[in-house]
Amino acid sequence: MPTTLKVAVSKYLSAKSPSLGTRHEYQTTLAKWDQWGGGVTIEKLERKQIREFLDWVYERAVEHDGKNPGRTANKAREHLRAVASWAWEQDLIESLPRFPQPRLQREVAGRHYLIKSEINALYFATHAMERPRGWASSIPIGRFWRAALVVFFNYGLDTGTVWKSTPFHEPILWRHVSWDRRSPDREIKEQSPWGWLFYRRVKTSKAFYRPMNRVVNAHIKSLMPENPQPDSPVFFGGGSRPNTQFRELCTLAGIKPKTNLETGEEEPWVLKDLRKTCATYYDEHVPESSIEILGHSVGGITYRHYAHRAPLAFKAIMTLPQPSAFSALTKGFDGECPCCRRRFADAS
Q: Do 261 and 109 form a contact (C-beta atoms < 8 A)?
């Protein structure tokens, strides 16, 4: 039985369970498809019909004084391509139709990740963080933040996984850290000479056993007390509002706020941007590895059942190129600048 685009979109959204905003965007594209007069079933969808529809979307956006008609057309193209790819994976269509190239568009999101020079600046700026009132730990607060930056970069953790800022968060505890070569999850066959880390995603509660590379190992060990209590958190210093402290850290590091190119307004960096930074560098290092590293939901029967995702994540984590500042601790320069050997404020 022929499948209309409306039915295909409905089945696709039911299978993916996207956010309400994403659902509205797909429904908007579907409404444009109906206005264009698209009576083509998804089985007979070809490049010619796709090109004509996208040209109509672009011209309509120009006619209605759209601020970014290229982006409007590309958004519709993205939606059609996602639905067509899903239909092909489900064997609803025999082959994926060829799509025309995206149109030129004005980027409106701006840069959503921190570059390595900025991460280096953040890392060294932690030495200038002031000791909070009532701070009882013998370890400077900056050392906790340096280790936090390392795990944010390497695993793309949620803020609540590092610091328990609300009661329902499950932070990383010392019993979640294993120094053994073998993973606590016996289904994982790879061995890590630096140990393993266990944590859960705040959003989905999905559990992960991740290998520690040399940099993560060194920074976690730098936080370990003489007799770590199994149920004691690994990270302190986040407080009830870690994003407020992160903004202050950005100021210490001299990092300018983000600029929203659509509104022209400046927006502060938040800890979630470190998760986006993690995804950016993993996909640059090992394409598509960020899907598994960050714990995103994935579609497609082939990927879910046949792709070897755990070995891919292991390889990506163990070989990810690190920002140069992260090697300071492994080279013995935690309390001094690796360039001029000048002692930092919290090490004096």
A: yes
